[in-house]
Amino acid sequence: MVGTRLRILVANRHGLASTWTRQTISGPLNGSTGVASAINDAGAAVVLWQTPVHNVTSAVRTSRTRPWRVLGVPSGAAARDNSGFLDGSVAMTANGQASAIWYAKEQAASTVRSAFRSGPNAVWRAMPALTPSAPSGSSVVGIHVAGDAAGDAVAAWSVLPNGGTTSTIYVATRSGHRPWTAPHAMPDTDLAVGGWVGDLSRGPSVGIAPNGRVAVAWTADTSTDAAIANVGVDTGNARTGAWGLAQPLAPGGLPSIAINSHGTLAAVWTQPLAHDFMVADLRAAMSPTGATWSVPQTLHRFNGQENYDYGHVVLGESGRSVATSSWHNSGPDYEGLLMSSGPNGIWTDAFTGPVFAWPSVTLNAAGDALAVAAGTHAVFGVSYDAVPRPKLAVHATPVWLPGHRQIRWTVRVTDVGPVTARNVALSVSWIGGSANLVSAAPAGSRTPLGRAWRLGTLSPGRSSSVRVVVRVPQRWARYIWGQTSAVGLATHTFQVTAPA
């Protein structure tokens, strides 16, 4: 059998087709929570987190080659426990200007905090804060925030009567460094914090574009029955404070919404198949202009899995969107899903992987995507390239020749991607006691542990094969491993064990 193994410790990478490099970011990271980060094309970067003593701090650098340095962030009043940096996000411009926004559960109330840096060498400055409030007998729940690099921001939350099952949705916006607008009530009430969702509530979702366009989505209260709830959507502008007319999107609830500077919208949500959300479909759709939506598409079916996150969506300026979700399998493992869509709303390029749960996804201007997730023993990275690149698959077949104590390996490399792979290389090594090479066709070239070949160019669907025969003294000690690569393609590693 062929078993591909890919484990990547990630901090930074020069282009999606390049290999990963790992760096250590100095600072009091042990026991920290709520990490958020941003990077620009020049490699200037910023990482924010909450320290174990409940302060918010950052690590910054001015370019890819410059060292990281710790920089404090004005974080307002003291937070309660590890609740000082929630729903945090960071955005950065080409010249290094950056803004960060989050909310904190502080001693008196939950407060939306934000900070701004005018360039890669500047210090952080606090921006106007927002403290959502509720009348007596009600509580503020389900706060979500988003901001762009210029300091424009949007916040949404629900006000839930004590003991109630539905809530009123409020949104507020901020233009640059100005004060927040007065909260604006949405026309629908929100079921996302009410009775039948309980502890699985997520509140209204918000998104913001680099030019200040904003969007909010929620679970509209059309009934106390989850199976016939609807997703509501509204759009506005943080720089003017104006909002449009709320519109229903589709049956379901617990949405995630994203918007870009052109007004394109992307949404994912959960459509229950019963009277709760335990058996449900993860659905997604796109709206190229914000007026009409594509036909919703089912990305995944949840069959009662515990601890699934209902889905999230990000949207780039190119119009490409990436949807994610995670769920708990049997045992200790979690599994994650990534799918990509253009403005047409057709979701393809699914990636699923064990221990790839709750990934953080970012998109560049071309639509290339990078997803990073923390596993049990490592941080994993997965890329989607909007520009098609070659993709190579390896199939190795062993045949035991008992009369000669030999194994004949046939290794076939196939371009299974959408474009031609050029300068394809293959290297193979074998281990098995004192294994010796008997023959190789083509001959290839010697390496310290085996053989290497230049396979040249492979067009989509075409293959190239090599055959090696090795003599081993013991049948139980035999396997080969190797690597194959091409121009514009990271190295692909494989290992094959001969059957007993």
Labels describing this entry:
single chain; 500 residues; mainly beta; Neuraminidase; Immunoglobulin-like; 2 domains; 6-stranded antiparallel beta sheet; 4-stranded antiparallel beta sheet; 39 strands; 53% strand; elongated
Give a description of the structure:
This protein has 500 residues and is mainly β. It has two domains: 282 residues, Neuraminidase; 106 residues, Immunoglobulin-like (Sandwich). 0% of the residues lie in helices and 53% in strands. The protein has no helices and 39 strands. It has a six-stranded antiparallel β-sheet, with no helix packed on it. A four-stranded antiparallel β-sheet has the order 4-5-6-7, with no helix packed on it. The protein starts with a strand and ends with a strand.
Under CATH, the topology of the largest domain can be stated as: Neuraminidase
Characterize the overall form. elongated
CATH architecture of the largest domain: 6 Propeller
Number of domains: 2
Number of strands: 39
CATH top level assignment of the largest domain: Mainly Beta
Biggest sheet statistics: 6 strands, antiparallel
**Helix count, DSSP H or I runs of 4 or more residues:** 0
Helix content: under 10%
Ends apart, CA distance between termini:
12 Å
Set out the fold topology.
Blueprint lengths: L1 E3 L7 E2 L6 E2 L11 E7 L5 E6 L5 E6 L7 E4 L13 E7 L5 E8 L4 E8 L7 E2 L11 E10 L5 E9 L5 E8 L9 E7 L14 E4 L4 E8 L9 E8 L9 E5 L1 E7 L5 E8 L6 E9 L9 E7 L8 E4 L5 E8 L5 E8 L5 E8 L5 E4 L5 E6 L4 E6 L7 E10 L4 E10 L5 E11 L4 E6 L3 E2 L3 E9 L4 E9 L7 E8 L2 E9 L3
Antiparallel strand pairs: 1-39, 2-3, 4-5, 5-6, 6-7, 8-9, 9-10, 10-11, 12-13, 13-14, 14-15, 16-17, 17-18, 18-19, 20-21, 21-22, 22-23, 24-25, 25-26, 26-27, 28-29, 29-30, 31-32, 32-37, 33-36, 33-38, 34-37, 35-36, 38-39
